[in-house]
Design a protein that fits this description.
Length: 626
């Protein structure tokens, strides 16, 4: 063998030895896995005896890399409801949040045994956050509690397994054994906002149902905007209790339109101005999309009507602790008055709905929140919390300087939030009583015409019966609407009673109503030379419902099915004759020429001409006035 051949052989042996060493190192350093058949506990449930009804509390512990601190989140079942004890008992009312957080614990099972090596825990992300410092390799600790706060199940959930959606490494805190397990849709959070119903005012369609209603009445309770009123307040900040309060109010009334494109009119505009429809949409959207950022318990001495509670003798009686809590109002932008009211230093918004429920939103100071939900204050107060100044005293240079300063302040506060207190009530005047219908009159007779008095009397009695039926139905509906409205207002009032809410300052800006932004120069409307009316083609704009309204005092007559030809030809109907005097509107008669062409169809001729419409089509109905 030559020297070159011996050298080649030597290199081959060396390379083979190195490869063997590397393979051995890889074997000893990789997680020690085994198949389910090799592990007697594989495929077994982690908590085989755990029932969902046993779980009366849940603790979730995670490491927050932003704050470099351990976050613990708790939810408990207390007095028939799930609450957040670390948030002073605020309801945990987010849909499905609790089910997602607890149901998987009762079904999770061991799949493949990954390792028993404690040194592998950091790599697999199953370190216990209660024991370890730092974020690397730390998992999320779940602890399910029973009604006595005893731990009935606990598990550390680690890293997601690559290529297997919903699968993670898990282990029990008192064991070093790590398993792969299917935890499903693992979306559990320690963030407060993920556990609550974030919709603050519940103006969107069907956000909640009537909690005390029967199953048949558990329909979507929609609230339609009727009026929004903004009030600015001016007080002297040097006075601990406000003695003189100045107000300035602007009002917007909603007149119709759709949910996504409402129409409204700002009150008090001069003839050359009109309401800015874009601002109206922004206002409506802001109200319906206002979300809770955070909550804090409000002073116990402040009632649900946002007034300082007093004893029967009229004196304000609170404990020392409550008095200190009430002083907190001023620091958060709410100043008490001599008559026990509380002035919001950043304005009040009154929101009325057609269903009778109204809200009063009282806004306080700006607030900045940390990751752990603690208030950090604001860079600068922006409230109008000083005595009013005479604008005429400012010269142009000062005014320009103030504008620049305001813009700079706006830039600083664009990502901030704001305190708000909320009161809710019900206005029964939205549902006025329905009086009896006027006494019906028999049809007039022509001179010399034979009269059947018995038939005339029966005609009047028939109409009276119809009047009574319609009036009774309308009154029952009114009573039901009032009952539901009061119930819903009570539910909302109970929800808001204990809390300061924190909302986005950007949302707050969209709610402020002032003529500078909500009014604009009136646009000239171009004449429509085509003569086409809005709505259905060929129908006059003043066409009204042909539905008989025997009792004209009923606000919205019940819709009737379109009448068949046989009913239309029944000219001798007593009800139709008497209704002629009490109909809500009578369509304009067609030209005489059309009457001559079709004398045998007098009722059809009474309809206005319609292009491209069938003679059997029901008459078009104009939407009721708001």
């Amino acid at each position: 063998m030559t020297n070159n051949e011996r050298n080649d052989t030597t290199r081959t042996i060396v390379f083979a030895g190195v490869a063997l060493l590397l393979a051995g190192a890889a074997y000893f350093t990789q997680p020690k896995t085994s198949t389910g058949t090799e592990d007697a506990t594989a495929n077994a449930a982690f908590f085989p005896d755990l029932k969902l009804e046993q779980i009366k509390g849940l603790e979730i512990t995670d490491f927050n890399s932003k704050t470099a601190q351990v976050d613990m989140f708790r939810v408990e079942y207390d007095k028939g409801a799930w609450v957040l004890p670390l948030k002073e008992g605020y309801p945990a009312d987010a849909k499905d949040a609790l089910a997602k957080a607890t149901s998987w614990l009762t079904t999770v099972s061991k799949d493949v045994h990954a390792t028993d090596d404690k040194g592998q825990h950091r790599e697999l992300g199953v370190l216990n956050p209660m024991d370890e410092k730092g974020a690397e390799g730390v998992g999320i600790l779940f602890r399910a509690l029973d009604e006595n706060k005893n731990v009935v199940a606990d598990l550390v959930v680690g890293k997601e397994i690559e290529g297997k959606t919903g699968w993670r490494y898990v282990r029990q805190p008192k064991s070093d054994a790590v398993y792969r397990a299917n935890v499903g849709d693992f979306s559990v959070s320690t963030r407060f906002r993920d556990w609550i119903e974030k919709d603050l005012l519940e103006l969107s369609e069907g956000t909640r149902t009537l909690s005390s209603a029967s199953a048949a009445d558990r329909e979507k309770y929609k609230k339609n905007l009727s009026l929004v009123q903004w009030t600015d307040f001016k007080v002297d900040p040097r006075q601990p209790i406000a003695q003189k309060v100045e107000k300035k109010t602007e009002t917007v009334k909603f007149t119709g339109g759709s949910e996504w494109a409402p129409t409204a009119e700002m009150q008090g505009l001069p003839p050359n101005q009109e309401t800015n429809s874009e601002k109206v949409r922004d206002l409506s959207d802001a109200l319906k999309n206002m979300q809770i950022v955070d909550v804090f318990a409000k002073p116990p001495g402040l009632g649900p009507d946002l007034r300082v509670q007093a004893s029967k003798g009229g004196q304000i009686e609170v404990t020392q602790a409550e008095a200190e809590k009430l002083q907190e109002l001023s620091t958060r932008g709410f100043k008490p008055t001599l008559d026990r009211d509380v002035v919001p230093m950043s304005g009040e918004l009154r929101v009325e709905t057609k269903e009778g429920i109204f809200y009063r939103l009282r806004f306080g100071k700006l607030v900045q929140l940390s990751e752990d939900g603690k208030t950090l204050g604001a860079p600068k107060d922006d409230e109008a919390s000083v005595a009013p100044k005479n604008e005429k005293e400012k010269n142009p240079a000062e005014a320009k300087k103030d504008d620049s300063k305001k813009k700079a302040d706006d830039d600083k506060t664009k990502d901030l939030n704001r305190f708000v207190l909320i009161a809710v009530g019900f206005d029964e005047s939205k549902f006025p009583p329905i009086p009896d219908a006027p006494e019906p009159k028999a049809p007039e007779t022509k001179p010399g015409e034979k009269v059947d008095e018995a038939a005339r009397k029966k005609q009047v009695e028939d109409v009276k019966q119809l009047q009574k039926m319609q009036t009774d139905e309308a009154r029952k509906k009114r009573d039901k609407d009032i009952e539901n409205g009061k119930l819903r207002a009570k539910e909302l009032s109970d929800r808001y009673d204990r809390w300061y809410y924190i909302v986005s300052n950007d949302t707050y800006k969209k709610l402020k109503i002032d003529k500078a932004t909500f009014a604009k120069a009136k646009e000239e409307k171009k004449d429509d030379k085509s003569g086409a009316a809005s709505g259905f083609p060929g129908l006059p704009t003043d066409a009204k419902s042909d539905t008989p309204a025997v009792n004209p005092n009923i606000p919205v007559p019940k819709k009737e099915e379109p009448k068949k030809d046989s009913q239309k030809k029944d000219e001798g109907s007593a009800v139709r004759d008497i209704n002629a005097e009490t109909k809500s509107a009578t369509p304009n008669p067609p030209p005489k020429s059309e009457q001559k062409k079709a004398p045998q169809k007098s009722k059809e001729a009474e309809k206005p001409a319609s292009s491209g419409k069938s003679k059997d089509a029901p008459p078009a109905k104009k939407p009721p006035s708001p």
